[in-house]
Amino acid sequence: MNRLAHHLPARIGACWIALLVLVALAGPAIRPDATPNANDQVLERALLAPGSEWTSADGGTQTHWLGTDRYGRDVLSRLMAGSAISLGVGFTAVLISLFIGILLGAWAGYRGGRVDAVISWFIQVVWTLPTLLMVLAITMAFGKGLWQVFLAIGLTMWVDVARVVRGQFFALREMEFIQAAQAFGFSDLRVMLRHMLPNATGPITVIAAANFAAAILIESGLSFLGYGAQIPIPSWGNIIQEHYHLITGSHAWLAIAPGVLIISVVLAFTFIGDGLRQTQPN
User: The CATH number of the domain where 243 resides is what?
Assistant: First the structure.
């Protein structure tokens, strides 16, 4: 990680992600619209331009830095609330994918033989299926909603983790220190967790960063199609879906702003993953 600090794009990406995490954790406390889901609708202030000020009936004045949508909701607040959904989906999906991928990949690489053949066959079968198609099938089977999205994305992103872990464990099991641990009579679980897994964390971390970016993209796509976060819960994907028809008009910022956020987060994780890969010891 010390060497990663000297990788400028990765450092910029990490700072941007850290800022979004703070925004997500702070929640309504720092949003201009502190209502649940930032869903305060005032039709009289609909489609205000960025930077517009609105004076309420009680004389209070509020500045809408990114304007308002067609329902009079503060766009900045909606985007800030949506950061919690996107980062939450990414974090949960990565945890699920790491758990399943490390479990299957480690067992296949360590045991080899018939166990490796069976698990590798299963990995190849899942790997050949389109990720988005699998996610849509799972969400259609379990219904629409956030937890279904968390589960669906996590269950489709473990394959890359499993393949990397399998390869690492397959090479590590031939090392002398692993054979020495086995000679001392240590259990398979102890050998894998205490002696092999720490030596495979580098590639796993790179894959996790890439999966985080992919999970955010998939969640945004699902929300755009109506299978992800359901209105009024704000997601960058469903915010785009509500306003994409305005992209060629004078209110194009309503669709562009969440799109820019999605791109920036994906690039941030890409920079972090690239930095981790370049700083891995040879």
Answer: 1.10.3720.10
Q: Is residue 239 part of a domain?
A: yes
Q: Is residue 202 situated within a structural domain?
A: yes
| Distance (Å, whole) CA 218 – CA 99 | 20
Within a domain: 31: no
Nearest-CA neighbor of 167 among 212, 104, 214, 97?
104
| Total domains present in the chain | 1
Q: Is residue 75 part of a domain?
A: no
What gap in Å lies between CA 77 and CA 83, rounded to an integer?
A: 10
Report field, pTM of the whole predicted structure over 0.85: yes
What pLDDT, in 10s, does the model give residues 195-239? 899 888 889 999 999 999 999 998 898 889 888 888 888 999 999
Spatial contact of 214 and 161, defined as CB atoms under 8 Å apart? no
List pLDDT tens digits, range 7-29: 889 999 999 999 999 999 999 99
